[in-house]
Amino acid sequence: TQLLEQSPQFLSIQEGENLTVYCNSSSVFSSLQWYRQEPGEGPVLLVTVVTGGEVKKLKRLTFQFGDARKDSSLHITAAQTGDTGLYLCAGVPSSNTGKLIFGQGTTLQVKP
Amino acid sequence: DAGVIQSPRHEVTEMGQEVTLRCKPISGHNSLFWYRQTMMRGLELLIYFNNNVPIDDSGMPEDRFSAKMPNASFSTLKIQPSEPRDSAVYFCASSLITIWGNQPQHFGDGTRLSIL
Known about the structure:
By secondary structure, chain A is mostly beta strands.
């Protein structure tokens, strides 16, 4: 069974601080997706990383896929209150059935 | 473009009652997923369909849960009889699966279910 462990589970920081969320597995994934979920809504895709070692930037958010395609990280620079939400990583197994393996999520609270 | 549409948004009912959740996927998508989300267990996959055919229902908690997809534009998740421990937010998501993979899942806004 493929599992994704996400850490930390909860993070409460002040506006302007930096943070990193980690997503780790012992399994190899063909790609990895990051989603963000706001209260009362479903998760929304932020980015997909495909190649081992790949780095993608989305404004203040930087996503990295590990060289071995088993882990990923999300780094937020100078967090803003609008970044508050639940961040979920999801691995795409090589079987390509469309099924995703979701991490438990990181609840981020950015205080003004 | 319309996204994934779920109904109802909220459902409050007494234990023992039948509950039916509905989902309309994005037109053209060939896969549909039902999830349950709770604080304790996070986002759990219950069942998914490819081209209207159930592929993996190993996440369905027990026989009280059933799901159908009679056509490409509609799916239901039914709980009968419902129990308080079924209280959660239920999400439907759809996706287009291709040989190139990597397609994201598009989620509805969920149904918040409370069983009293």
